[in-house]
Design brief:
By secondary structure, the chain is α/β, with parallel strands linked by helices. The protein is built from eight helices and ten strands. 33% of the residues are buried.
């Protein structure tokens, strides 16, 4: 097993790097830049300023973008400068589960804050990883959020597939992440064109219920709930508009 070391005396940098590594369940050792590098360490990640003080051949120095630095480090540890095929698996939902697979191996997992946020995450993958081909595969369930996600990705020059996600849900702490992994490793049908986004009665009622819980007292209107479901407005803004309307 290859070992990663975080060598820094910069507390803020250390905190951010460790958070990224723990999110990916990556083991590491902590060092000061002046500490001798143990013979078991294969790669050192540090700040650009502190890298000059470290006597080691295999160093990743990070200036601003912590996530990009961690991705570079992990790719180096895996010995993969370029992937033949990158696949992004997405379990659709209000906070989609995402799994990134490179040449058949899980590289990282995460959640998006919204269906539209998936585009920013995929753009980050495109910028931070070197690859020949990318495919995005999204589960066919949760039609409204699935279509919102697909529509947000249409401006990117990537192949998008819809996968039958039957039997992808598992009884785990993060079922949406496990589903995203299975979706990424499946084969789907090409998604073409723009997809209609139409809120259902059940989805609007659920959003109204959540608005009561979040605000403590306000139930947004069906009209506002429809906008929230379809991604035209954030919940906080809808609650604010409802409150202003009731005060008039």
């Amino acid at each position: 097993m290859k070992i990663l070391a975080v060598a820094t005396d910069n507390f803020e940098f250390y905190y951010e790097i460790v958070r990224e590594l723990k999110q990916r369940d990556i083991a590491f050792v902590s060092l000061s830049p002046t500490d001798p590098i143990p013979p078991t360490v294969d790669l050192v990640i540090t700040t650009e300023q502190e890298s000059e003080a470290i006597d080691f051949d295999n160093i990743i120095s990070v200036e601003d973008d912590i996530r990009r630095g961690v991705r570079r480090a992990l790719s180096t540890l895996k010995g993969k400068s370029t992937y033949q095929k990158i696949v992004v698996g997405i379990d659709p939902g209000s906070k989609p589960g995402i799994a990134l697979v490179g040449d058949g191996k899980i590289l990282e997992t995460m959640h998006a804050d919204s269906p539209e946020e998936v585009k920013n995450i995929v753009e980050g993958f495109i910028e931070d990883y070197s690859f020949h081909r990318m495919t995005v595969r999204i589960g066919h369930g949760d039609k409204t959020n699935r279509n919102r996600t697909i529509n947000s990705l249409k401006g990117l020059a990537i192949r998008i597939e819809i996968v039958n996600e039957e039997d992808t849900t598992k009884l785990t702490e993060k079922p949406d992440i496990e589903a995203a992994k299975k979706i990424a490793l499946s084969v789907g049908e090409l998604a073409e064109g723009t997809y209609d986004v139409e809120a259902t009665e059940g989805e609007m009622r659920e959003i109204q219920r959540r608005s009561r819980i979040r605000s403590g007292e306000i139930t947004i209107s069906k009209k506002l709930a429809k906008k929230v479901v379809e991604g035209d407005i954030e919940m906080e803004k809808a609650i604010e508009e409802q409150k202003e309307e009731e005060e008039d």
